[in-house]
Design brief:
Low-confidence stretches: none
Mean pLDDT: 76
Radius of gyration: 37 Å
Order of helices and strands: HHHHHHH
Oligomer: single chain
Shape: elongated
Strand content: under 5%
Number of helices: 7
Largest sheet: none
Distance between the termini: 98 Å
Structural class: mainly alpha
Helix content: over 70%
């Protein structure tokens, strides 16, 4: 349980570290200068902790001859990781800057465990672990790509709505404007009461007149001709 809590705390610290170092970059004007200062502070802290633990900062020179060369690459990879995050943070933001390296860590971790690289305990890649990696990949795609797709779709809908508004003009749901053919408008029961009364009388007249005159009557309504009974 303690190991899980420590891992969670480390995960919480990663985006905090990236944000702090990005702010440090703005202050010093260089991502490499910010990375150097960050590692210098870390080195000082580690020196203090090492003195407390083993009471010396020295190590045996036989390490250079008895150990593989790649054991010295950890510091270099740490510089690449830290400086890369500083460079990516202003372009990708906090979430994507943290998520993409996490995906790389999971994929690389599966390969390292499966093949036992760097003298690591070998753990065969199982279907369960593979499906877990796929789920992480799907989460990354949703977090990174879906957000851009939704923003693009929202911008497109907004653009279409603005063009539609420019072509048809604003409309009132309960008013006299009609969202459609601009020459056709809805009647307002209060403002157009007299017009509605005239229409009602014309309908009653139309229903009462003989069929041979009804067509002439309708034509007179739409052509503004005078109709005589």
């Amino acid at each position: 349980m303690l190991a899980i809590l420590v891992g969670l705390a480390i995960g919480i610290g990663l985006p905090m570290q990236t944000s702090i170092n990005s702010r440090l970059r703005n202050s010093v004007g260089s991502p490499f200068g910010a990375s150097l200062i960050s590692f210098a502070v870390g080195t000082l802290f580690l020196a203090i902790m090492t003195l407390i633990d083993v009471h010396t900062l020295g190590f045996s020179t036989t390490l250079f001859t008895s150990q593989p060369v790649w054991i010295w690459l950890g510091g270099l990879l740490g510089v690449v990781y830290l400086t890369g995050n500083i460079l990516l943070f202003p372009k990708l933001g906090s979430v994507q800057t943290v998520i993409m390296p996490v995906l790389g860590q999971i994929l690389a971790g599966l390969l390292i465990d499966n093949f036992g690289w760097f003298d690591s305990p070998q753990s065969t890649l199982t279907m369960t672990r593979f499906l877990g990696a796929i789920l992480v990949l799907a989460g990354v795609i949703i977090t990174v790509a879906a957000q851009g797709w939704l923003e693009q779709r929202h911008n497109r809908i907004t653009e279409i709505a603005e063009k539609d508004l420019g072509l048809r003009g604003p409309g009132d749901f309960f008013g006299i404007r009609q969202s459609g053919e601009m020459s056709f408008s809805l009647g307002d029961i209060y403002q157009d009461a007299s017009i509605l009364q005239d229409v009602s009388e014309d309908v009653q007249l139309y229903l009462q007149m003989p069929s041979n005159k009804s067509e002439i009557f309708l034509n007179s309504l739409f052509t503004e001709q005078t109709f005589v009974l």
